[in-house]
Recover the amino acids of this structure.
């Protein structure tokens, strides 16, 4: 198998050939056709909490980052699977199951981490779903029960998670408000959301007139939008869901009922309604650039700059 791997945060990602990992009885092997890039990918390379968790419970050997993938089942373990060889699927890897990341030409996962793809949905669209769509889906349907009459504020509305959060909010019949830069106002409005341009002043105060909010989807970090200001925008039973967690947030997470964290663990049950929405045209991912897997380091450089609108994809 060919993977993009890095020995340390300072060492660039580079292609390397590794032996294919043997299948356990309940595993499936996927021939990867497209890979979604997420900030969690490059954060995994740092010395922060994610890297520590990976070292503690993750697979041994070189660090292969990445979660999102779409492709075809190429092999099934001895226990069998409801996924047949040749099935088109989308899914996410999970290092806590000792799995290598998705920056590779093949991945080995369990069937409950994959959802079937209709023929009408291409691999590149599907690869935009796992982290970016599962994360807000958890916030909207599991942490809260967003529906008609609800109001949702999305901070970081033009990123991968943010755009999916807006689209899913509208799908659920709720009011969506997104904070973004002036250059992305039209993109946010095209999803049926109210845009708040942060370049025009205090974005949280500008958003207040559209609240109070049942959910504040915080997809950028509390260094930009402090948690106290976000909490003040919530309805009495509203919450702030953090997709980006800083060490400074731990106290608030532990002692405030209004602050929660959301980790987009990818499962079939969460992916299936998202794939259905994609097939129906209710989700229309924006792909900023398709980048060869051999140039994965460039993808991380673009992602770190914080200016990506929608998703970056890697193509093996």
């Amino acid at each position: 198998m060919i993977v993009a791997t890095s020995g340390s945060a300072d060492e660039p990602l580079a292609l390397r050939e590794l032996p294919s990992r043997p299948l356990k009885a309940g595993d499936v092997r996927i021939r990867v056709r497209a890979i979604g890039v997420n900030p969690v990918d490059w954060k995994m390379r740092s010395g922060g909490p994610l890297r520590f968790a990976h070292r503690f419970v993750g697979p041994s050997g070189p660090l292969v980052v990445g979660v999102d993938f779409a492709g075809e089942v190429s092999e099934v373990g001895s226990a069998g699977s409801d996924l047949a060889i040749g099935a088109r699927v989308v899914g996410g890897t999970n290092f806590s199951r000792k799995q290598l990341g998705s920056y590779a030409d093949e991945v080995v996962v369990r069937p409950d981490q994959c959802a079937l793809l209709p023929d009408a949905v291409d691999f590149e669209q599907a690869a935009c779903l796992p982290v970016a769509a599962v994360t807000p889906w958890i916030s909207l349907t599991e942490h809260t029960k967003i529906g008609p009459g609800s109001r949702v504020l999305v901070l970081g509305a033009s990123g991968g998670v943010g755009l999916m959060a807006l689209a899913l909010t509208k799908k659920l019949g709720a009011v969506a408000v997104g904070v973004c830069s002036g250059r992305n106002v039209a993109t946010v409005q095209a999803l049926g959301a109210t845009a708040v341009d942060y370049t025009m002043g205090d974005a949280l105060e500008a958003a207040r007139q559209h609240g109070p909010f049942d959910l504040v989807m915080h997809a950028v970090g509390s260094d930009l939008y402090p948690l106290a200001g976000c909490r003040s925008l919530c309805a009495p039973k509203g919450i702030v869901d953090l997709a980006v967690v800083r060490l400074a947030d731990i106290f608030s997470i532990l002692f405030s009922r209004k602050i929660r964290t959301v980790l987009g663990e990818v499962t079939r049950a969460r992916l299936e309604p998202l794939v259905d929405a994609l097939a129906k045209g209710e989700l229309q991912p924006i792909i900023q650039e398709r980048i060869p897997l051999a140039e994965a380091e460039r993808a991380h450089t673009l992602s770190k700059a914080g200016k990506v609108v929608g998703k970056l994809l890697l193509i093996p």
Remarks:
- The first strand starts at residue 2 and ends at 6.
